[in-house]
Specification:
The structure holds 2 protein chains of 2 kinds. Chain A is an all-alpha fold. Chain A contains 15 helices and 2 strands. By secondary structure, chain B is α/β, with parallel strands linked by helices. Classes of the chains: A mainly alpha, B alpha/beta. The structure holds adenosine-5'-diphosphate and magnesium ion.
Chain lengths: 323, 240
Amino acid sequence: MLDHQPWLRYLQPVVLLIVAILVAQVVPSRYANALVLFTLYAYISICWNFVGGLAGKLSLAHGAFFGLGAYISAVLFVDLGVPLLVGGVIAAAVVAIFAWIMSAIAFRRRIGALYFALLTLAFAYVLLELVRQYEIAYKLLGVHLPLVDDPLNLIFLNKFNSFYIGMVMVAIALAVWIWVSRHRFGYMLAAIREDEEAAKALGVNVPSVLTVTMVATAAATSFAGVLAAGYLLSVEANFVMSFEWMNIVLAVTLVGGLGRMYGPVVGAAFITIIGEIVRSLPQSIAAGGISTIVYGALVLLAATLLPSGIVGIARRDRELVVR
Amino acid sequence: MALVAEKVSKRYSGLLALDSVSLELPPGRILALIGPNGAGKSTMFEVLSGMRKADGGKVVLDGTDVTELPPWQRCRLGIARTFQVVRPLAAMTVLDNVKVGAFVRHHDASEAEAVAREALEQVGLADRASQLARSLTLLQRKQLEVARALATQPRYLLLDECFAGLRAAEQDVSMQLVRRLADRGLGLILVEHSMRIVMRLAEEVMVLHHGKKLAQGTPAQIAKNPDVRAAYLGARDVVG
Ligand SMILES: Nc1ncnc2c1ncn2[C@@H]1O[C@H](COP(=O)(O)OP(=O)(O)O)[C@@H](O)[C@H]1O
Ligand SMILES: [Mg+2]
């Protein structure tokens, strides 16, 4: 089948992209927001899945990397007129440096799984708080991008265009996933996940492989922030730097399938639909953080009932990611 | 050219597990490392492979001092080891386990797969290739340890009790493999309890006892050595 022509696998993301574009043609415009959210969720979760699913390291900082991408690129655009994409590259560099520092602390010595999670959590909160303080000092009313059709800055009057860009990003991330999981680097990541000591004895430079993965996925995650900045137009710390994004990534990946290629995509679709349903409920019920409760409950359900996520029901992967 | 330990010492909190032990393993040679349980044999592997840092002494690989190098670098320089307490990459297939080893020298995925399949063939696990490693029996896990180490295409191979639990016929197959590897120029250290295997395979035997080198010589010399007999008998007395 497909296995005889490995390059055919790279057609899957392309097909997904085409299908998504076609489907969007018949979706009423009131759902454009949900579609954009779906691509953000899916893309960030795929990035995170390299760390959490392939390497088996619970990073709680990727939500903050997304927020920084949005905030830095928006501020550079509004204050200094730096084109959003250029600002995005600068933001990615800043985020990469943070991820590198975090990796240098975490991976130089052997640190336990719990400490890695706590370290990334602490880093995330420091970053969230830094941006909040900056906002209080300089941007009390948030950062506002002008509402003019400006495709080069990812600002579209037709919100579906943000969805198309997001889907392209998802397709690229999936293609990278296919490549990594078939090549040396992916095997090294999976070996680290299964047994760091055995991996070392098999020639895996554990600290450097993990550092590269953290830095690369952090930078990639920050690009989602750039898309979000152009889409949202009003970039506020309380929203983009909320820990809620991290919660969503965890829910998406666990519900969809940790370490599975399509886990984040399926999980993102699921979580987006749940989000829409919650939002359509009467105000009296929808208020009061009910969506957080729903996400939390889903993660609990997924962890107990579906350890391999929704994707795990459909098929048993024969890839590195078998669980 | 040799894998050399020079006066290596290793301390675990209070306990001196290795006390200034030296050994030299030239390519193509089979050295048996024997001694009662707790003698320090596995600790010697830990130190040679770099999984644990020696507290004293040096490890030299073909003239290069590797004492300060981490295990992954020593693996790339040609030292491979198996773990006495097996460490399968449980959620990966048998083939993928071995591919991780093969990727040390072959960055191309299909090349690595070919090397991995050959290693599986050599240890007799070829028909398990697509099974998950966690579904293997303990014996098969030991074979997997050997296949993974072989796939890194080492110059020196450290085998820690890989024959334990094998039936006589299976032992013979494994012994032929070890012989072939040595003939191809690999240096091998066997940690082994079965004297049948030690006597038939090893050209040289080193006996450890309480972290010290007790004796070294040909299998015949060791078999006659009164100190060695006393050490084993003493150990048995303690048990009994
Ligand atoms: N990780 C460890 N921590 C503390 N003591 C250890 C550790 N590993 C081994 N030892 C002790 O070191 C001594 C040598 O152990 P080992 O090298 O495993 O012996 P062998 O392989 O010859 O049976 C034993 O007394 C053992 O209890
Ligand atoms: Mg031992």
